[in-house]
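Checklist before submission:
- one chain only
- standard amino acids only
- sequence pasted in full

Submission:
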Amino acid sequence: MNITHRTYEAGTLPPIGVIPEKFYAWTIRSDRLGSPEQAFSNELVDTPQPDDNEVLVAVIAAGINYNGIWAARGIPKNVIDSNGSYGNKKEDFHICGSEASGIVYAVGKNVTKIKVGDEVIVSGSRYDRSCPYIKSGGEPELSPTFHIWGYEANWGAFAQFCKVYDYQCTKKPDILSWEQAAVCTATGATVNRMLHHWDGNRVRQGDVVLIWGGAGGIGASAIAQTVAYGGIAVAVVSSDERGEFCKSLGAKGYINRSKYDHWCNISDLDDAGFRKWTVGAAKFRNEIYSIVGRRINPSIVIEHPGSATLSTSLFVCANGGMVVLCGATTGYIASVDLRHLWLYQKRIQGSHAGSPDDLDEYLRLCREKMIRPSICRSFSWEGLPQAHSEMEKGHDLMGKFVIRIVPDKEIPGR
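Returned file contents:
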């Protein structure tokens, strides 16, 4: 590698292929855990050298998601304590950020499909390709070695440079801006897996898809992809303003969840409470019928609130349909009425991140169906703690938050 002793300020980069000895990163340390404003600190760190199968990428833009908030809190997992568990040297700091777009600056000796100067999308899904389960044909995402880069693994996207495995990199298509490319893995690929991966429950023409949090990053992408596949998207939101935003993305209509009061973990209910819950869930289901214009239940429910909503999601799901979860923002201890599960042969499916194939399929939709990631706000480098704080509070969250680290004028060769 061509190493330089010069330090480059955040927002600037050396010529392509020139690696500074140190670079700026937003770090988290154990003695600062708490709010994002408290936990994140902008500091200089030593530049790591990529191993044989790794790539060093100059980060142009990075997506914001809840991984950074959880890492800042140190709950449910202290990522600094587990730092170094995935092949890298243990450090006393952690760099978060689980999706990015950037330019390749260095590659390991075994890397052949990616070269210095390539513009790439970086995914957060990581695993050990030598894992016996994977080598025997198992899905990498189900491997015991699977983990999320920038959360469980260090050297994430909130820095001038990030270090990733070569297979995490996909060539950036020209149709996507740097910001759009930076936010299309944690939402676009994740949602595509939820809609299109599971045999027997792939979205089809005319299917109704119920989408929780329709105005957020996952929800906005789910609306766009459902429509691209010919499905009917029905969003669940917390306000009419967000509902109208969902309709602008292509949703058939929306349900304002604030008009209902039956959200709970049903295991806490007595008989009278359960009867009241059933009435509320039935009214919620009837609103889906009203939006669609006929008595048809969702073939797929895109779930991520968890505890408060899972029982309702299973209740309204079509016979033989699927409730597919990628999170649990209201709590991860949930209960359901199992009669709806076995009598009507419904499916509850977990889904965590997306594979390279899921990303490829999402990018195909971007090219052929002209869908694009929905970006709510773009923050500067200095605004990273604020971006996480506003996401934590739910401020203006309609689409994705993104950090633009290097402006166009500062990109080498532009």
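Reviewer check: The chain has twelve helices and 20 strands.
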